[in-house]
Amino acid sequence: MSAPATLYRKLVDSHTVAQLDAQNVLLFCDLHLMNEYTSPQAFAGLQEQGRGVAMPGQNVATVSHIIPTHPARYRVIQDPASALQASSLKRHCQRHDIALFDTNDALQGIEHIIAPEHGMVRPGMVVICGDSHTTTYGALGALGFGIGTSEVEHVLATQTLVYRLAQDMRIRVDGRLSAGTTAKDLVLMIISRIGAQGARGFVVEFCGEAIEALSVEARFTLCNMAVEAGARGALVAPDQKAIDYVLARAPDIDGLERERALAHWATLRSDECARFDAEHCFDATQVAPYVTWGTSPDQAVAIDGVVPGAEGAQRTSVERAQRYTGLASGTPLEGLPVQHVFIGSCTNGRIEDLRAVAQVVKGRHVAPGVRAMVVPGSGAVRAQAEAEGIATLLVRAGFEWRQPGCSMCLAMNDDVLAPGARCASTTNRNFEGRQGRGAITHLMSPAMAAAAALTGRITDVRKLEPLQ
User: Fold this and answer.
1) Would you say 323 and 414 are in contact if contact means Cβ atoms under 8 Å apart?
2) 3-class SS at 6?
């Protein structure tokens, strides 16, 4: 009888082609996603070696990071370097017969949104991509993680990866989130508690009543940001919600294959006596809307909190963050003026996020002096929001309704904040210069960002006066 195993070890063991040594295995990868800024170099390496792509059908590419999001019917990448990245990716995909969601594809979008929404990701898979937020797919019980360019080349050539084993961490969240709080608030709270390196070297499995209550899209947000605590992966055991989500988007799973899939997916959970190397427990009822104050996602406090004092082991990093953001110890975040609001990204650019924004915005208008942008995560999300009337509602309220892409999450296109501008953002990182040189980012949930757009300041969405 085999020893009790965690979900993580089950996924690794089922994909191990060879045990290389005590810490490393050769791992088979079910799905490899690519974007325009980490993949062209890998293709060039293949070409130099005279190699082909081992399994083209298990590789998918999209243009998302450098693409302009202006509301134009036909998009043209004006920046020469960015245009070269996109054209190189297209050329290589055509040569190797790899599916590509190109610049003007109606379904183009961010890889971490288009892959699940088109049924590419299923429970039990190993999914990799040259992007750190590949942890997103753990929401469906798939092991996802980011890789570097040299590893991209290895995967293209062999559909395998030399993989260093991680440790197991379990994070249990009991209770239920209260009204006005979301998965984004929960994960910001967790990161602030365990730290930016608190899960370094671990794959995290989330469980508990609060996690079970989350929608699949909310779980994407949770797993997406686990990497901001240093996690090498994030997992939620697939339940009926996850299974229904996948089956609704994967019509190819039918008949006998469906029976086999369901039987396999039922085994994808940690055994009762499985050992975890580290564990944390949190109470969802104690979660308030969270906002970052500094230059790292772990530098976050509840909306009624203040910028912490600079003391102890974190003194240097706190002082540097305070200098960059212009916020002194003891400064309240609630009421802090913002000039810009950005709603989108692979963290919060899904239809559920936009519905939450619309619910807050309905009947109101963006505050004077605030520029508010909404960038859907994919063409499918954009079309759905337009069909539901969300886009019209947002435009009438003074929001910019843009084309899909990564946009101001990392400012690799022309969506860039001016120096000193303060932005309420639904993205995943608030690093120095992340949204523009000298720009200041405050991470928060879509509902909180919407409230900031309407009031012109960081606002507790729970306090917005009900409309008559």
Assistant:
1) no
2) coil
pLDDT band at 1 (very low <50, low <70, confident <90, very high): low
Conformational region of residue 344, where left means phi above 0, alpha means psi within -120 to 50, and beta covers everything else:
left
Both tokens assigned to 74: 């036909």
State the first-to-last Cα distance of the chain, in angstroms, to the nearest integer: 65
The conformation of residue 314, written as its DSSP 8-state character, comes to G
Please give the backbone phi and psi of residue 112, each rounded to the nearest 5 degrees, phi first.
-75, -5
**Cα torsion for 131, 153, 100, 226, to the nearest 10°?**
-20
Q: Does residue 363 register a pLDDT over 90?
A: yes
Please provide the average confidence, as pLDDT, over all residues in the chain: 96
Across-strand partners of 24?
Answer: 164
In degrees and rounded to multiples of 5, residue 56 shows phi and psi of -55, -35
**pLDDT tens, 180-189?**
999 999 999 9
Q: How far is residue 9's CA from residue 165's CA, in Å, rounded to a whole number?
A: 9
pLDDT tens digits for 214-237? Answer: 999 999 999 999 999 999 999 999
Residue recorded with tokens 């960038």: 375
Q: What are phi and psi of 449, to 5 degrees?
A: -65, -40
Q: What strands, in cross-sheet order, belong to the sheet with 202-207?
A: 233-235, 202-207, 167-174, 278-283
> What average pLDDT does the segment 34-41 reach?
86
Tokens matching residue 390: 């969300």
Question: How are beta strands 440-443 and 422-425 bridged, if at all?
Answer: parallel
- Cα–Cα distances in angstroms (integers) from residue 333 to residues 53, 164, 336, 414, in the given order: 51, 41, 5, 29
Classify strands 290-292 and 300-302 as parallel, antiparallel or unpaired: antiparallel
Q: Distance of alpha carbon 215 from its chain centroid, rounded? A: 15
Burial of 58 (0-12, 13-18, 19+ CB in 10 A): middle
Helix intervals (H) in 388-445: 390-396
Two structure tokens written together for 38:
């980490």
pLDDT tens digits along 199-208: 999 999 999 9
411-462 residue pLDDT tens:
999 999 999 999 999 999 999 999 999 999 999 999 999 999 999 999 999 9
How far apart CA 185 and CA 364 sit, in angstroms, is 24
- Which CA distances in Å does 129 have to 53, 132, 136, 269, 437? 15, 8, 11, 24, 27
For residue 298, give the amino acid letter.
D
Token duo for residue 429: 């990182």
Phi, psi (rounded to 5 degrees) for 441: -115, 130
Listed in sequence order, the DSSP H helices in 309-398 are: 315-325, 345-348, 351-361, 379-387, 390-396
**Mean pLDDT throughout 19-42?**
93
pLDDT at 468: 52
Name the 3-class secondary structure at 44. Answer: helix
